[in-house]
C-alpha cells in the first residue's frame, strides 16, 4: 500500500502552461500577472482592494502596520494557531496577548476576547482556524465601538463562507496564505484584502521598500522616474511566476471546495458513530472549506490522541497533531502563562489530530483512514 498523505496540492498542466507563458514573456518579477491575480482574488472574495505579498506572515505584518499598530500597543491573538499569528505583532513592537478559544470551533469569540482587553488593546487578530469561519460580526460589535481593529487571519479561509458571503468580505482588513498546505497555492505567497483604499496603497508601497514609484513602472519606462523612499519598507513582493499559478488555482477553487466537502461528509458520517471521536463541523452562520479536517479524541475511545496517530502511522497513513498553542512555546515563555492558563486551547491542542484530506484523494484512500479509525476503536471496519 502507498502512503496516504495528510495534504497534497492540486496542480496540473494548466499551471505548467501558465508558468511557461510568464517565462517566455521575459517578465518574471512582480508585474502584470500579480496585478491580475489581485483583481481576480478581490472579485472572488468580494473585497474592494487586494495586495499580493510574499507570505501570509508578511501580510499580517503589513496589515498591522497600515492599521496603525505601534510600539507599546497590545494585540489580542489566539494561542491556538500557527505561531506566525503571535509573531506578527512583535514585528511592529506590539505585545501579543493570548485569548482562549471556543471549544467547538477553535476560534476566538467575543466572550474570550473581552476577558483580555485593556486600554492598550489596539487590534485583534481573529483566525478562521482550519477554515472554520470566525464569528466576525460578534467580534466587530465588541471591538469597533472601542476603536479596536479586527484583522481577520483568513490564512486557511479561501472558499469558506460567513453569513452567506466569502470569509473576509466583512472585515476591515484580512490576510490570506497560499502555502502548499492551503486550499490553493502559489508555492509561497500571501494576500491582503481591505475595504480601505489608503491602507491598500500604503501596503503596496511597503511591500517594495516603500518606493514612491513601483518597480514595475520603473522598469516599464525607457527613462525611469527617480523614486523616493517615503518610510522604512520591506521586500515582500510576489513574483509573476507565483501569480500565474495563483490565477489558475483560483479558477479551481469552487471545484476544490465541492470535493473537499464531499470527502468531509463521508468522514463525518462514520466518525459520528464512533464513541469518543468528535469531528469539526460547519459553525452557525457559516460553511468551512475543511482546509483541515480535524477530530477530537476523548473517552471512551480506547486510544488517546498520540496513540491514534501512531496507529495511523503504522498503517502508512499520515495524520498530524492538532494546532499548536503558541503560549507554550519557548519563544513566549517570558509571558509566564503556565499550564491551565488557556484551558480550552491546551485541551484542543493536546487532544485533536488532522486527518488526510486533499482534492485528488481516492475513495480507497479515504476508506483506509476510516477503517483505521474503526479498528482503533475496537470495531470491525
UniProtKB/TrEMBL annotation:
Keywords assigned: Aminotransferase, Pyridoxal phosphate, Transferase
Molecular function terms from GO: transaminase activity
Pfam family, one: DegT_DnrJ_EryC1
Matching InterPro entries: DegT/StrS_aminotransferase, PyrdxlP-dep_Trfase, PyrdxlP-dep_Trfase_major, PyrdxlP-dep_Trfase_small
Cofactor (UniProt): pyridoxal 5'-phosphate
Presence of keyword Transferase: yes
PANTHER family: DTDP-4-AMINO-4,6-DIDEOXYGALACTOSE TRANSAMINASE, TRANSAMINASE
Similarity comment: family membership: Belongs to the DegT/DnrJ/EryC1 family.
Protein name from the UniProt record: DegT/DnrJ/EryC1/StrS family aminotransferase
